[in-house]
Amino acid sequence: MKLKTFIKKIEEKYPLNLAYDWDNVGLIVGDYDRDIKKVMVVLEANESVVDEAINKNMDLIITHHPFIFSKINKVNTSDLKGRLIHKLIKNDISIYSMHTNFDIAFDGLNDYFVDMLELKNVKILDKTKSETLYKLAVYVPKTHIDNVRIALGNSGAGHLGNYKDCSFTTEGEGRFKPCEGANPYIGQEGALESVHEVKIETIVPQKILDKVISSMIKAHPYEEVAYDLYKLENKGESLGLGRYGKLKENITFKSLGMILKDKLDMKYLRVVGNLNDEVSKIAIVTGSGADMVKKAYKAGCDVLITGDMKYHDAQDTLDMGMKVIDCGHFDTEKVFADIMFNYINENFDIDIVKSDVNLNPFDII
């Protein structure tokens, strides 16, 4: 499989335009036209990970943390990052990073915690944008209405809230004259043809627009498919960082912490708040999300689950009457490899492995 084909499908699920402007996501090192057969997924790529990929003959490393984040002015082997770039290029290994776009997208890191805790009535904590929608109108002969309509629905078009396969049809006359060299499904070269057609209209989110149009064209009988696209003022699903929702039943703050320790296989947690208090409404911001405490408080949450909380943030949290479980940056994001392993394994015919390198820089003594 070509790397560009693989990436295109990944980005339909986790679009790069969801990432914050300061982030660095996408193909960091590599060749889009390269064939790939073996992929490694890992939280980030340090020298041990790169050496592991070389030893295992990997073609691609997929990371959560951007391999190149800050500006670099030189690439030489006297610098750590330069040395790794040299190793990657010499061994024909590409690196692709998906960071805040993966945090924001549905079925990313935050939604993993939502599923793990079985939260209900889940909402976005910090909305950053709304999905762009398009109206797609295509003109189809009556013989192929169902073929095209089904192709549109199966590719994801016509999804409105809790409803799918939504479309609208109107009937009319289509006219065309096949020119020299044409191979018309209906009509003859040089003769004006009039056909009873149906216009099918449906809604398409921007992230799957190319896929929907491709499926529509394949199902359509005409050599040249007539269709219109209109960018809509209506907005699609809200997107953003963090999630919040309610537990199935109230539990103590301590019990919530013990559940997280067990699920994340952690030795310890840092917590802010009374362990005996009952909690029900939970906010989640994986990675470094301590600055989201006020947003979680305004949303009526009892607890924020995140990492990297500083001393003064903890004091402010206590003053607000909020609670925080600080799992640490690493332990809220180490599941990236599991999520991507499962997604790639289910959607691609390709060899996929998780890195064996332990990337947590902290230990307990």
TrEMBL record:
UniProt KW keywords: Metal-binding
Family: Belongs to the GTP cyclohydrolase I type 2/NIF3 family.
SUPFAM superfamilies in the cross-refs: NIF3 (NGG1p interacting factor 3)-like (SSF102705)
InterPro entries: DUF34/NIF3, DUF34/NIF3_bac, DUF34/NIF3_sf, N-reg_PII/ATP_PRibTrfase_C
Domain of life: Bacteria
Full protein name: GTP cyclohydrolase 1 type 2 homolog
Species the sequence originates in: Paeniclostridium hominis
Metal-binding among keywords: yes
PANTHER family: GTP CYCLOHYDROLASE 1 TYPE 2 HOMOLOG, NGG1 INTERACTING FACTOR 3
Pfam family, one: DUF34_NIF3
